[in-house]
Amino acid sequence: MRIPFLAGNWKMHNTVCEALNLVQDLIISTNDVKDREVVVCPTFTALQAVSKLIEGTHIRLGAQNMYCAEKGAFTGEISPPMLKELCCRYVILGHSERRNVFGEDDELINKKIKMALDWGLHPILCVGESLKQREAGETKDWVKGQVEKDLHQLTPSEIEKMVIAYEPIWAIGTGKTDTAQGANDTIGMVRNLIADNSSYEVAQKVRILYGGSVKPGNVDGFMAQKEIDGALVGGAALKADSFARIVKYEEI
Ligand code: 13P
């Protein structure tokens, strides 16, 4: 039984003060939520303050990125022990914005995943196809290739600690979404791939999310799908009421 996972990726939004207000509201509006994991991923500058505020609550903390070294001459980067020190449990890796705006490739993402796991962090690996790939009918091949490269040489016990988010790039921030059935199919393919490359048991443990314009109005449909274990939410996670409604999706 996989615990549903609802995570907010705030991207480059919210000052410390705004972050605290949002999380304070979220603590109150979701405090009756049971059997669901609620995660917020603020910017680096807000992690410490948010970490203190959520101590002892049901909300968990994730970072949006990290570098694959413990320390050293890497100007502008943040290391896994720095995230651990702030009680981060998760770290988003391989988001399409990191890949496309900052030029991260699968080799680097694979290194980051290994390093995160070595430090006891749970990566939230993002994968997904472009519109061009979608229109060319290449979605499954592309996503399969990304997952294989990003999880290269990971052991089964490492893979089961992962969360994976299928985020079609054309659905991010556009208001367009994959269909619930379409997302379920691609996510099912990813789970089968993990079963083939690792084991059935491991594949049954890994939580695989959908991301891309998830909103209060469409979350119920995604969460009704058998293979979809949660959502990675951008824009709709920036308001407490809309993220709370997503967290409280209704079983249909
Ligand atoms: P939106 O929910 O704004 O489309 O963003 C999705 C996303 O990129 C989450 O990581």
Describe the overall structure.
It is a single chain. The protein is of the alpha/beta class and 252 residues long. It has one domain: Alpha-Beta Barrel (TIM Barrel), CATH 3.20.20.70. 43% of the residues lie in helices and 15% in strands. It is globular, with a radius of gyration of 17 Å. The model has no long low-confidence stretch (mean pLDDT 98). Residues 9, 95, 167, 172-173, 211-214, 232-236 line the site of 1,3-dihydroxyacetonephosphate (13P). 1,3-dihydroxyacetonephosphate binds next to β8.
Kindly summarize this structure in a few lines.
By secondary structure, the chain is α/β, with parallel strands linked by helices. It has one domain: Aldolase class I (TIM Barrel, Alpha-Beta Barrel), CATH 3.20.20. Helices cover 43% and strands 15% of the residues.
